[in-house]
């Protein structure tokens, strides 16, 4: 009898531990607490994503705008996972307070060619300098739209380190582990003559936005 009680107690401990880390889709997973979105500025490269995206060479530039109250995000991608030519870009502006709240901030992207694209994002973890782990979804009710990914500040980060980042996220984000994530191609990426000015583009958009605010 005593042995059975001991086993039951052990099971309760085990389920209690793993219950706090139950895997959830992005729609319900909890974002990183005490996030400071103003420290997310800079150039980021998407390293892995799950489910796999049909794009490659994903690069983002994040810049502050409107007296540091907003983030302007410019995202460049290729048209397919096998292409190195970054011929597509999206641009979005989001309030810093919405990002810091981290309960799911909405990005309305303007694509080139122009086509609105809505997605809700959460920052799951970051050290503000080398990586950002995030998730997103396009439908609050369709859990299959949940996506997870990792951004890094280097084009070709150490693979062992990336695996560790994935393992850190796997316990609480559904369908995000070393067997489901796909590497995002970053080799030999280019964007015609604009490739040398990618980091500058978001700053230009931010400045243009500020001018509009001033004269309106």
TrEMBL record:
Q: InterPro entries under this entry? A: Calycin (IPR012674)
Family annotation (SUPFAM superfamilies): Lipocalins (SSF50814)
State the superkingdom: Eukaryota
Q: Where is the signal peptide?
A: 1-22
Q: Which residues cross the membrane?
A: 190-212
Q: Which UniProt keywords are listed?
A: Membrane, Signal, Transmembrane, Transmembrane helix
Protein name, entry field: Lipocalin / cytosolic fatty-acid binding protein family
Specify the species: Musca domestica
